[in-house]
Amino acid sequence: MGKTAKYRQITDWIQNRIASGELASGEKLESEHEISSYFGVSRQTVRHALAVLTEMDILEPRQGSGTYIKGDLSVFSKEGELSRTVDIVSTYVDGYIFPKILQAMVKTLQKSGYDARIMFTNNRLETERSLLVRMLEENSRNPLIVEPVMSGLPNPNLKYYRRLRARGIPILFFHSFYPELDIPHVSIRDEQAGRLAAEYLISLGHVKIGGIFKADDGQGRRRYRGYVEALLRAGIEVREDRICWIDTQEVRDFPRLEPRIWNRLSDCTACVCYNDEVAHILTDSAREKGIQIPEQLSVVGIDNSDFARLNAVPLTSVTHPMAQLGERAAENMLRMIAEPEYDATYEFPVGIEVRKSAVPGRDGN
Fold it and tell me: Which of 13-17, 236-240, 245-249 has the lowest average pLDDT?
């Protein structure tokens, strides 16, 4: 993220003045023009900073009068040292890539004398909200490592993250991030993942390359962006009718998706899948329909998970540093605890593991 975002300089300035007692409950804040001049930034930047603090219940705008410090400043309490227990919030725990990530995270924290408390959202906004509200109500001092919930969509829970951070709680996202929040993250380079998957199929001579991507996860949107970049670089037309957008719930109920997916892939010789789980389900569906993988449809997944290795046709897949990602997330959190201004964002580069699910494209495609 580099230097602190300009709006963050303003929010930190206001919060520090409240914490020191310089600004009291009910007191009027300087005007947008005065703050803009003081920091040498645009009024739009000032408005964004004030909007963030308003959402955190620290400021209260009054029509025609100005902006005031809110009466209840309990949100601003930073009392007590940080706990030696780190809260880890993940979408899931069982199967796929999650155990290796969480095990490495916990092991790394424990080596440094920290305990870990693991909680799960099942990728549900309601569960995420209840966990964050409980942390606020309990005045938790636990540092927080979180996997975002449906990070490709607007999230109504962002204000709770802002309130926790206002209390001095270090927060780090893993796997993905909320672009609206200036909070560091540890993930893979998702655009590179989508690009590598498509480039591999292009290198095999495929031109009619479809894609299945998750719309409700930021990873899905970034992987799609990489897929598009690869096709455009190769001079291949990007066709909307070859792309199928799905969401978390639909992955669990794949049979209902099948007619739409196979309609989108009807003239394709290859497909980039959002991850190995989707690729595994797709190849199972193909077998039931008598569609041969890879002879009739070459498939590339992402994550290089057990699904890729154990699939009926072993999947070519973009790699994922599961254990290393968990370890790095824990290490970066420990660094944030020691150095609150440390920029803990890190994105792992990825490669590709070639197996048997993709073959050279057919003549005339």
Answer: 13-17
Read off the pLDDT of each residue in 81-99 and give the average, rounded to a whole number.
Answer: 89
pLDDT in tens, 278-329: 999 999 999 999 999 999 999 999 999 999 999 999 999 999 999 999 999 9
Helices (H), the chain: 6-20, 32-39, 43-55, 98-111, 125-137, 158-166, 190-203, 218-233, 248-252, 258-264, 276-288, 306-310, 322-338
121 backbone dihedrals φ, ψ, rounded to 5° = -105, -15
Q: Could you report the per-residue pLDDT of 197-207, keeping only the tens digit for each?
A: 999 999 999 99
What is the total residue count of the chain?
365
Look at residue 72 and tell me whether its pLDDT is greater than 70: no
Predicted pLDDT of residue 343: 92
Average pLDDT value for residue range 335-343: 93
| Start-to-end CA span in the chain (Å) | 43
Question: CA-CA distances (angstroms) from residue 83 to 140, 337, 338?
Answer: 8, 10, 13
Helix axes 32-39, 43-55, angle to 10 degrees: 110
What type of residue sits at position 225?
R
For residue 245, the SS3 value is: strand
CA angle 310, 314, 317 (to 5 degrees): 105
Rounded to whole angstroms, how far apart are CA atoms 219 and 206?
24
Radius of gyration of the chain (CA): 23
* Amino acid identity at 206: H
Note the pTM of the prediction, 2 decimals.
0.83
ω before 294 within 30° of 0 (cis)?
Answer: yes
For the chain, what is the largest distance between any 2 Cα atoms, rounded to a whole number of angstroms? 75
- CA distance linking residue 344 with residue 322, whole number of Å: 18
* DSSP, res 265: T
Nearest to 186, CA basis, from 148, 136, 157: 148
Q: DSSP state, 75? A: G
